[in-house]
Amino acid sequence: MTTRRLPMNTTYSWIAKGSVAAAALVAVIVGCSSTPGQAAQTCGAVETLCGKECIDTLADPSNCGACGAVCKPGEVCGASACSLTCGAGSTQCGASCFDTNVDGKNCGACGTSCSVGQICAAAKCVAQCPAQQTLCVGDGGAISCINPNTDAKNCGGCGAVCDPGKVCGAGKCGDTCGVNELLCKGTNNTLYCSSVQTDNNNCGTCGKACTAGQACVGGNCTGNCGLNEKLCPSGDGGAGYCAKTDTDQANCGACGTGCNSSNGEICVAGKCILQCAAGLTQCGKECVDIKSNRDNCGGCNSPCSGLTPVCAAGKCVAQAPCDPNTEVVFSGHCYYIDGSGGKCDVNYALGSNATMAAILGNNTNAYAGKNYKHQPSSNCCMWTSDASEVYGMNAHCNSNGPFSNGEPVVNGAGCNGAKNFAIGQLTFCGSN
Asked: What is the DSSP track for 21-70?
């Protein structure tokens, strides 16, 4: 039997061989800010904090393998490396490579996201398994929740089959069952070691099944669970299990209330809370770097403003002046246009289409009289942090400024959802 292992609902550390998605088996990673100047949201398990943005460096062509590592035009990013094509087992989505069999944001097809509380298995969004069970994909793509401690076909993990005559006890194949286990018959009369103290199908003894609304506790079918436990559905024939709702990721505080593990949430005292990565501090519902976050500089709720709008080393300091010949000041940041092919100066990062829209919405002629930061472009469609290029230059397409009124502009030079990534591509950058 060929079986692929998927994660238990209490851990998301499994990485599929050759998978770009890696630990992205949980369904939804809360979107991070892609607009310079906004505080970054909590980064997911496979994301890296690049400046103030959460970036999937496994697949982001502008940050492939590391922040600021830009793939060449025509290349794609997969498994943290730039290449001409996606590797075996992965699918090209834009300029990124994902394993659509397990990627929660591209499950079965590019752009198909699973819901909170689901994971992507065999290219399908499915519900998480109950505690102490593992989701496995068997022959023909059949998906099922198994107990790796007792399942002889998946003993200790998916696809680990015990030899004929052997039984699975405590996740190991052997001749006899472990303590508090009995050799019982399962599906198709297959023998397996049942934990009769907690097995809803063999509660106290083989063949004694608990009914709907009951769970096996201490070898007895009961509707009463222990302290800090609640009887929650487990999906095995209608019988439930006693979930420790103070720590259960799938039933945190109440049955069916799942914590978003991919977003760094853990269940503590019956509440889903953030567990911030090293170097980050929890401020409200965000994990931020208080050394550089303007809204939480040096500590939570300590914003920088006025004459000291920049947070540096945990202190509010004055903004370094923007270059009046090439840069526009907006929301405390400096933004410039250049023919740099998607690359930005040190302490600058690609700006988004939304940021350019905000700048021009505030002043249509914000860039009038400005010039390219270093050199004219060789392609007039503006490379931003977004996948598509919607802004372009008309009068000064590939030629020196100063720029005219109304430049750049939406659909300028015919750029309407273009995806040109030339060496000298028109590029939009903003200070961190």
From this structure: STTTTBS--PPPP-STTSPP----TT-EEETTEEE-TTT-TTSSSSTT-P
Domain map (residue ranges) of the chain: 1-128, 327-431
Note the pLDDT tens digit of each residue in 156-199. 888 888 887 777 877 888 877 877 788 887 766 777 788 888 88
Spatial CA neighbour of 429 closest among 366, 367, 350 = 350
- Is residue 148 classed as helix, strand or coil in its secondary structure? coil
Contact 126, 144 (CB under 8 A): no
**Residue 65 CB neighbour total at 10 angstroms:** 15
Q: How far apart are the first and last CA of the chain?
A: 52
Helices and strands (DSSP H and E) totals, the chain:
1, 32
For 331, left (φ over 0), alpha (ψ -120 to 50), or beta?
left
**Two tokens, residue 158:** 């998916």
CA 310/CA 316 separation, integer angstroms: 5
- Judge if pTM exceeds 0.70: no
Per-residue pLDDT band for 305 (boundaries 50, 70, 90) equals confident
| 116 Cβ contact partners less than 8 Å away, ≥ 6 residues apart | 27, 28, 258, 260
Rounded CA-CA distance 100/96 in Å is 12
Q: Which two tokens stand for residue 262?
A: 């991919």
Instruction: Give the Cα separation of 331 and 252 in Å (integer).
Output: 39
Instruction: Give the residue among 111, 109, 102, 107 at the shortest CA–CA distance from 14.
Output: 102
DSSP line for 109-121: STT-PPPTTEEEE
Burial class from Cβ neighbours inside 10 Å (0-12, 13-18, 19+) for residue 53 reads buried
Do residues 372 and 378 touch, judged by C-beta distance below 8 A? no
